[in-house]
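Q: What changes when acetoacetyl-coenzyme A is included in the input?
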Amino acid sequence: MLLSKANMAATKINNLTVIGAGLMGSGISQVSANANINVTIVDSNQKALEKSQKGIESSLKRVAKKKFANDEAAQSNLVKSVLDRIRVSTNVGDSVENADLVIEAIVENIEIKQKLFAEVEDATKKSTIIATNTSSLRLQDIGKNLKDKTRFGGLHFFNPVPMMKLLEVVKHPETSDATFKTLMAYGKAVGKTTVACKDTPGFIVNRLLVPYSFEAFGLFERGDASMEDIDIAMKLGTGYPMGPFELADYVGLDTMKFIMDGWKQQYPNDPSFKESKLLNKLVKEGKFGRKSGEGFFKY
Ligand code: CAA
Ligand code: NAD
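A: The predicted holo structure follows.
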């Protein structure tokens, strides 16, 4: 008997592989392991894996301290039980063979992502769902070479993942209803509020946030206001938790540049996609924001 769309059950995710152990991959791994999912984090760089494990531990300690304020034993139990569900690896093939879900969170570069997805598709079971955490690239481009696109979709998390409550779930034109339902259910299982997005540049949040940020960089570059005053103005004038310069340093200036460069190249006539000479200069100097110790501000 054929199941109707409404009756189609979401598949429960028990085993997750996250590829990319940077800011986002670490956070995604943490919230998933915290939701009783077994997680393998893969990175081509062993040092990134070590840094990720340390970062997850310190973030978990903050979460545990808040949850069990006066109970140190409960705090360490939580930290230990979550860390015990996370293993790390530098080998993609071995790490994805038993996964129910693979989430890619590597550098925002189309060729590198396409290459990785080809490798992942060949090494996974036919039932494994594969997802990208891309900030800005079209799923149709990232997944161009996939043989089966019905099991492919987008899971766009926000930084810092343990604190940000939103998850954008993105549908590629060929994503099946069953895959989409499973991605939505996974998002809820890891404690996020999900919104459905189409495969359009920046989905919902970044389509609004990134042009706004570049507008702020322009305001400063024209000499119309200081970075500090722009940040204060947006925090106190609109209630945003961070101003645009503070937030760009938090996201990573390299990531901001990858996003804008990609859009400018793909949509050269869209006036909301513009360049910032200052951002280009900072990235060229290796000033990527908080993660490198300096960006618009020093840390
Ligand atoms: N792990 C665990 N807990 C954390 C944490 C982390 N990484 N970061 C912050 N916290 C907790 C702290 O423990 C603290 O809890 P208590 O108040 O109970 O002690 C609480 O969060 C507040 O932290 P802080 O006092 O250090 O700082 P804050 O009040 O400024 O909050 C923030 C930090 C949550 C990051 C807040 O500033 C914020 O929401 N900033 C905006 C972030 C944002 O807009 N993110 C989206 C970026 S865009 C994106 O991600 C998409 C993309 O594709 C680029
Ligand atoms: P990051 O630079 O912190 O980490 C990327 C990690 O990927 C690095 O550890 C790197 O060693 C690893 N890597 C690169 N190529 C690899 C490969 N071929 N195989 C295995 N590992 C590889 O980056 P990030 O900020 O975590 O961003 C990751 C993805 O998430 C990007 O697509 C980005 O656009 C997206 N994203 C970022 C944010 C943010 O605020 N930074 C928010 C949402 C989504």
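Observations recorded in class: The CA atoms of residues 289 and 295 lie 4 Å apart.
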